[in-house]
Amino acid sequence: MKTLMAGYARFREGYWHRHQEIFAELALKGQAPGALVIACSDSRVSPEVIFDVAPGEIFVIRNVSNLVPPYAPDTGNHGTSAALEFGVTALKVRAIVIVGHSQCGGIRALMTGPSGSHGDFIESWMSIAHPARARVCDAPDAPGDFDAMCHQCEHESIRVSLGNLLTFPWIKSRVDEGSLTLAGMHFNVQTGTLKEI
Ligand SMILES: [Zn+2]
After folding, report:
1. Which of 48, 61, 110, 151 has a 20 to 30 Å separation from 8 between CA atoms?
2. E strands along the chain, which residues?
3. In angstroms, rounded to a whole number, what is the distance separating the alpha carbons of residues 167 and 192?
4. 43 alpha carbon to ligand 1 midpoint, in Å?
5. Which residues have CB less than 5 Å away from ligand 1 (the ion)?
6. Residue 151 CA: distances (Å) to CA of 132, 141, 143, 155
7. 8 Å CB contact between 157 and 137
């Protein structure tokens, strides 16, 4: 907590001071971010830091392993789907970018398989990426090295999520009419490089 409050003090002195006009305008006019970014909750992968954007520029969804579930308009508490709906239908973002990353703990857990010590939510959530795991494990040229398989699965899970985005009717229609673009990217934590997949 001390670390957080010390950071807040620095924010008030520095960042806030430099951006207070932007914050005041955003408070007055509301937000109009151009892009929606879906990233992992991982502490090393902050979209605002990686894309070096000002306040109000990106609408961010973060969850375990930057996954997008398929469209399922039922009574479940779909946090990611609700944020997608708001970003696309209310804010009318013009791009959705999924940012995966290296050394993703959720993907490693998925590739390891059921551990016997199940939590309450993570295993069910990660089942969204089961098709990615299957693509990696069932490929005839699958690497024998576990780290390499995890790396491949990080990429495949982004592709699965890109496909799932198109199951949302209000995303599919905007992509088809050309008012919304979708992209997948992979961030290398060690080198700080971002590659489109
Ligand atoms: Zn991750």
Report:
1. 61
2. 35-40, 58-63, 95-101, 181-188, 193-196
3. 32
4. 9
5. 40, 42, 65, 104
6. 11, 14, 10, 7
7. no
